[in-house]
Structures are given as structure tokens and as C-alpha cells.
Amino acid sequence: MKKITVLMLIFMLSVTLVPVGAFAGSTTPHPPKDPAGSWAEGPPPNRVDPAKPALLFVHGLNSSAEVWTKNNNDMLQRARDAGYQTATINLYDTNGTSQDMWDNGKLLADKIKVISNHFGKKLIVIAHSKGGVDTQTALVYNGAAPYVQRVITLSSPHHGSQLADLAYSSWAGWLADIVGSQNPGTSTLQTSYMKYFRTKTDALSNATTIPFFTFAGDNWSDGTASYILGGLYLSTFGKNDGVVAVDNAKLPGGRVVKIGSWDHAKVRTGSYVFSLIQPYLQANTPALNQETEALSASSLTASAVQSTYSEIDNSYFIRGGDYNGKASETLTVENGVKSIDLDWISDKRVSKLELTKPDGTSEIINLKAGYDDDIFAGAWHHNAVIQNPKPGTYKLNVTVPDQGAYLLIARYQAVQVPELKYNLNAVGPKLNLKPQDSPDSVTQVTYQVQYYGDPQQGVTSASKGLTVQQKTVNPTGQIELSKADKPGIYSVTYEISGTTEAGYPYRRTAVQSIYIDADGNKYVD
Q1: How many Cβ atoms from other residues are within 10 Å of residue 444's Cβ?
Q2: What is the 3-state secondary structure (H, E, C) of 362-414?
Q3: Tens-of-pLDDT digits for all 525 residues of the chain?
Q4: Are 294 and 316 members of one domain?
Q5: What is the DSSP string of 65-118?
Q6: Backbone angles phi, psi at 190, to 5 degrees
Q7: Any residues with CB less than 8 A from the CB of 103 and at least 6 apart, and which?
Q8: Residue 319 burial by Cβ neighbours in a 10 Å radius (0-12, 13-18, 19+)
Q9: Do 423 and 451 share a structural domain?
């Protein structure tokens, strides 16, 4: 498990985050004018070359066709200058509720045929984020392959995103009720469901009929606040662009072209990537270098590899709820904590936070904020860092002159807390827990299992999920999933508590997504 050093994190946060207000009036998205299924031809080249394919640009989660032109994105203009005809399309996300790959894939397949016939030639699809998953679904399951020459994906979550898992934790329901962050599109990007999707799709003979070329970003540190805070959360899972981990952007059977210093927005921006994409628009694609060939080969088996034990990260403490003018949360800090990164996600922007320390003194912390237009679209991220906190109980107070909801994510930079490992029993409804270090330091694990319906059947539950199980067990015990008796997505939220060797209490939260298919098979990342 890769860790980022505390000093580097603090440095990046100090030089890249911007104050509240800097995003006002510039990042809040406007409702798109065009409905789902609408598409538009881009600016035509000076001379149409019949030998060149037309390019279809597909947007990602909670987005629209406007993403290819707004915020000074010159992707279409660069494609035009290179002599390519272009088109953009709006999927169901443009209506305000992101849909899963099955609905988006069917819609996209129908329009791919229309757009290909319009240009009189095959298309090369360039897809950002979830648009890459939607595109593969259109090709493999909905008959669009004869109209497509190849596909280029830009930070597409081919193995899901752990941020989607977070959006379905038991603490996220209040915020989801208001900003709509739990929707069919986000639901199916949970890592467990995407593991099912990979298992189902990669086994099909036509899954590799159309060549896929993948790009991924690994630099979230100079992006917006939402990418920085998303990057902090995902850093536990490796390099990432603030929304999607690099490893999750690899496609079994696809070829990794480039892992570059981009965040999730830059990877779709023409000035950053079009020159790298352009060689793969030609009839004869260039050979990949030795490094990227090795990455491509590793992605072929990524979905099939699962170690005996997988780690549950103990870096986070998560809470959420609603508020009516004021919200408060309590942090327990053990010895050995170097810093705590706070991400206060709420439906409304706030400017400051009151921190009460163990000695009873209080201070006002100015927050740094940014608007989210990805997994938590419609919410505001607010960041603060508590440096070198002394052990004890800290209280956070936020005042907001209205009603609303929030989700708090506290990331501890600590060395004292042991990690748990789990083993998923594939033939029985149990999760075996095993502390990585001393089991004596973990007092108990309380888990809550919530059911969110089965995307395969088009069934979804309320945003807070249906709680099917809740229990406290010892750290070497088994988590029974006996109530998880029907197909669908289950979110398991763990509350871990214990004491360090020095006798200081600690509290942590971990989130895990599990999918059970119609045959009872279980999938977990």
C-alpha cells in the first residue's frame, strides 16, 4: 500500500489550494441546453480527408458535451486543425441524473450508428472518465462495434473508483439526499460492481474486437480543491488524478499509451493531450515503448488477481449528517499523529471552522474550498489541516445560516494504528478479519451492511440504503453477511476502535463495497 509523505502533502496543499470565493461564479455548472441523445458536429476542417476517420468525443460522469469546449478546452479545435471531422454527444447525465453503463451504452450505440452514417465513415471514439465504460458497453453489448475503428479512453475507471465506494458509505446518505451523489451512474462505478463488470465483459470473445488505447493521470496536487482532496483520499490506493486511480484506468486487453502529469480535468484537455492522442488516430498506430507495453500486459490480468488477504486502510475517520444552522463532530486523536487533513463536504459553501482542543481552547480555522463536478457533483469541498495535534478529544463546529447536509472525511497521518486485513469467503456469507499487527490494540469492529439494489435489474434503494445488518465483533472474528441474501450492491461501513501501545484511544472508519450476482458469486476489490 503506497503512502505519500506528510511533508510532501503539506507542501502541495499549501501551494495549490485557493481561498473560498475564488471558485464563485466560475465552477458552478449551468444546466446544458441539449437533451440526452443529442449530438452536434464540431467545426469542420478546411479540407475533408475521406481517409481520415471522424472523431466522436464522449463525456464522463455527471457531465455533458460542453466539457469538450468549456473552460478553454481546445480539444475540438486542435482536432479540426489536424484535419479531422468531429462530433460530441450528450448521454443521460445531461438530464441531471447520471445513468449506468447499460442505459448510457444503449443510447450511445444507437447514436454511434447515426453519427457514423452521417459522416459516411467509421469513428474513433475519444472518451473521458465513465464515458470509456459506456463506450465499451455500447460496443460489446449493443452492436456498435462495426461502426468504430478504435477507442481512446482518458482516465476511464475501468475498475471503478474508490470515491464511488465512499459515496455509498453509511455516512454519505444525508449529503446524497440533497446533491444527488448517489445515482445509477455512481452506483455502478463502485469497485465491487466494476469487478463484476470486468469479469463478465472480459470473458466475452468480442471484448477485444475493437482496439482500446488508454491514458491516465497521476497528478492531482495542482488541480482544484475537489481533485486535491479526492487525490488525498485515493493516495492510499496508489497514483491517481483526483478521481480515478492509475491502476483502475488500465483496461484488460487494452494498451496503456501514457500515464502523465494530469488531473482528471487536464487529461481531457486538448492542449495537454491531443498531441499524444494524434499518433493513435492514424491507420497504423505507433509501437508502444517497453515501459507502456509492460503496463498494458499487467492490465490484462489485473481483474483476475486477488490476494488471500486484502487490507482495510485505517487512515480515515468519516462522519456525516444534516444540520440546521450548525453542525458539530468530535475527533479522537491518539499519540503519534503528525497531521490530520480535513475534508468537510457540504451542499453549501462555508468559510470557517471552529476547532476546540483538548485543553479547552478554541481557534478559528479558515477553510479552502472548491466546487465538485464529479463523484460529489453539486457539493463543496472545504479543506483544513491540523498540524502536530496533541492526543485527546477535538471538537469541530461549523456554522451555516440554513439547513443542509455534510460529510466529514478526516485523514490521519499516523504510525501507531494497526491495519486490518479481510478475506472474502467466496462460497459463504462471511468476511474473515485478521489484524496485520498486534490484535490486542484493536478493541472492536462495528460494521453496518446496507443494501442499494441491483443495477442488473434496474433496482435501486433510497439514498441512505437499506440497513440489513449491524453488529460489533472482535478484531479476529468473522463478519456474517447472512442477511445479504439477494443480488445487488452492499456497502459495508466499518467503525474500528482500540488503543495504541501507549494506551491512547483511537477511532477509524473504513468503507467496502461488495456485489453479489444472480448466482450468489461475490465480488470485492
Answers
A1: 13
A2: EEEEECEEEECCCCCCCCEEEEEEEECCCCEEEEEEEEEEEEEEEEEEEEEEE
A3: 333 333 333 333 333 333 333 222 233 344 546 899 999 999 999 999 999 999 999 999 999 999 999 999 999 999 999 999 999 999 999 988 899 999 999 999 999 999 999 999 999 999 999 999 999 999 999 999 999 999 999 999 999 999 999 999 999 988 988 888 889 999 999 999 999 999 999 999 999 999 999 999 999 988 778 898 899 899 889 999 999 999 999 999 999 999 999 999 999 999 999 999 999 998 777 765 555 554 554 444 433 334 345 677 789 999 999 998 899 999 999 999 999 999 999 999 998 899 999 999 999 988 888 888 889 989 999 999 999 999 999 999 998 878 999 999 999 998 767 667 766 655 455 666 666 555 556 678 888 888 998 887 775 554 456 777 777 877 666 677 767 778 999 998 989 888 888 889 999 999 989 999 999 888 987
A4: no
A5: GGGGTSTT--HHHHHHHTT--EEEE--GGGGTS---HHHHHHHHHHHHHHHHHH
A6: -60, 145
A7: 92, 184
A8: middle
A9: yes
Q: What is the CATH number of the domain that holds 284?
A: 3.40.50.1820
The C-alpha cell at 299 is 492490465
From CA 231, how far away is CA 240, in angstroms rounded? Answer: 6
Q: Which residues pair with 510 in a beta bridge?
A: 494
- Phi, psi angle pair for 404, to nearest 5°: 175, -160
CA distance 273 to 264: 12
**Burial label, 115 (beta-carbon count in 10 A; 0-12, 13-18, 19+):** buried
Confirm if 142 and 109 have CB atoms less than 8 A apart.
yes
What's the CATH code of the domain at 449?
2.60.120.380
Amino acid at position 324, single letter = N
CB-CB contact of 170 with 268 (8 Å): no
Instruction: Look at residues 525, 436, 445, 513 and name the one whose alpha carbon lies nearest to residue 479.
Output: 445
Distance CA 73, CA 47 (A): 23
Cβ-based neighbours of 288, under 8 Å, separated by 6 or more: 255, 256, 257, 296
Asked, for residue 234, whether it belongs to a domain, the answer is yes
